[in-house]
Amino acid sequence: MKIAITSTGPDLESNVDPRFGRCSYFLIIDSDSMDFEAIQNTNQSAGGGAGIQSAQLISQKDVDTVLTGNCGPNAYQTLSAAGINIMIGVSGSVREAVEKFKAGEFSKIDGPNVGSHSGMKGGQTGGMGGGRGQA
Hints:
Layout: E1 2-7, E2 25-30, E3 36-40, H1 50-59, E4 65-67, H2 73-81, E5 85-87, H3 94-102
Parallel strand pairs: 1-4, 4-5
Antiparallel strand pairs: 1-2, 2-3
Helix pairs in contact: 1-2
């Protein structure tokens, strides 16, 4: 089975990146042979649309399943439309994630688990305002 895992680096010992659209790398792995291809994510610094663009990239790689930490609504919709299963809450090394996947420790999600733009700097905690509004 061909799976895509979000990663902080280009090898199996790298950590799983908790962000989907703005991860550093995607590792496309044959879960049986452990052969893999590392793809640097050129969408990680996109001003917007990183989730959709990253999902489109993954859908072109003929993968069955994505393993990641989190998945926002745009990426979820694009991956689901392509028939790709999404499993979240994945952490540790990429190699460990594959072993846990093969052991059946992850479940397919039926919706996003974070809001739009959650992978951007500032994420869900409010962004650029600094919180100095008037009371």
